[in-house]
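Materials and Methods. Structural model of Addiction module protein. The 78-residue sequence of Addiction module protein from Scytonema hofmannii PCC 7110 was retrieved and submitted for structure prediction as follows.
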Amino acid sequence: MVNATYDDIFGAALALPPGLRAMLAEHLLKSLDADKQMELDELWAEEVEKRVQEIEQGVVTPVAGAQILHELRSRQKK
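The predicted structure was written out as tokens:
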């Protein structure tokens, strides 16, 4: 099936029993999710590196999460 065309593959998939078609569809969708997840992981790694550099260079000052939550809650009460 190395030289199979899209139509050949699609036709073969349609010939499968419904349960196997569902499994095939699930596996195909998961493969797309995996590709997207890898892309997102790479983007987050770049963002983390950028933020670490900003902290190390003194461009930004880290603030504790608890402090941010406290400030946000205070604003909501106003």
